[in-house]
Every structure is written in C-alpha cells, then in structure tokens.
Write a structure and sequence with these properties.
The protein is of the alpha+beta class. It has a domain at 32-132: PH-domain like (Roll), CATH 2.30.29.30. The chain has four helices and seven strands. It has helices at 2-29, 95-98, 121-132, 141-144; strands at 34-40, 50-58, 61-66, 76-79, 83-89, 103-110, 113-120. It has a seven-stranded antiparallel sheet with strand order 4-3-2-1-7-6-5, covered by helices on one side. Strand 2 (50-58) and strand 3 (61-66) form a beta hairpin. The longest helix is centred in the N-terminal third of the chain and has 28 residues, at 2-29. This is DUF2550 domain-containing protein. It comes from Micromonospora chaiyaphumensis. The chain crosses the membrane at residues 6-27.
Length: 151
C-alpha cells in the first residue's frame, strides 16, 4: 500500500509541475510581444551552451525567460539603451543540430559584455527594428537641443 501511495504522490507532483509550466507559459504568451529565441549561456564548448526560451518586449527591455523554468522573473534583461549588434551569422557545426534551419545568430554587446541570441530569420528584422526605434514620446537629444521656430 505504501508503494501505491508513493507512486500516486509522485504522479501528482509531476502533474502539478507540468501544470505550473503550462500556466506560466500561457500567462506570458497571451500578452503579445513574445518571440521564440535561444540565448547562449555558456561558451566553454564550441557550438554548445544554448538555452531555449522566449523573449518579451517590455518598453526599452527585452526580457528573456527560460523555456523550462518555474521562475516568474526573467533570467536575463537586455536594455535597448545598452544593446548594440556586432554581427549576424548562420549556425555553424554543432549549432546546426540544436536549432531550426532558418535561425540566425545575432552577436550583441550589452554593458560591454557579449551576448549571443539565436532567433528565426523573420524575427531578426523585428528585433533590429525594435532595437533602432525610439519609445513613443521620446525625443532625440540632438533634436531637443536645437531651437525650432515657433509654429
């Protein structure tokens, strides 16, 4: 009888864990501005260290959440103000086995630390547009310092 109870408790724990993962994902994906991407969390071995997840655009930030995590907070937050793209490349070697064929790897610097982000080719265009765009209502410092004639 104790074995059956143990198995029952184990199954219940697994079901609750899966339910929490699906609820967490549903909460984040229903609000829009979500993209699938992978972030390279380790560069020890060539072509390895990629962690799948999804990104959420919130104002001037790209918040990255791991796909298989119970955390409600993002694992990494990239600010548009400090993020700069260095280069784009296609997956090489082992990377081709760990991500879809149409994905592109974007190497960026954030606060002088490099970060590699892999995403679909169609997503890169939106990501670069978000990166170059100014938030609504923001004025360029160059435009704000000039004297404009009164209308």
């Amino acid at each position: 009888m104790e074995i059956v109870e143990g198995i029952g408790i184990g199954v219940a724990v697994i079901l609750v864990a899966l339910l929490i993962l699906f609820i967490r994902r549903a909460l984040f994906t229903r609000s829009g501005g979500i993209i699938r991407l992978s972030v390279r969390v380790s560069t020890i071995l060539d072509g390895r260290g990629w962690s799948p997840g999804f990104g959420r655009f919130v104002g001037d930030e790209l918040r990255w959440y791991r796909m298989f995590s119970f955390a409600l907070r993002p694992k990494r937050v990239l600010s548009r103000k400090t993020l700069a793209v260095e280069r784009r490349r296609l997956p090489e070697g082992q990377e081709r086995l760990s991500m879809p064929a149409d994905w592109v790897i974007v190497r960026c610097t954030s606060n002088h630390a490099p970060v590699e982000i892999a995403m679909a080719r169609s997503t890169v265009t939106g990501f670069l547009s978000w990166l170059e765009a100014a938030p609504p209502g923001a004025a360029s410092p160059r435009l704000a310092s000039q004297d404009w004639p009164a209308a």
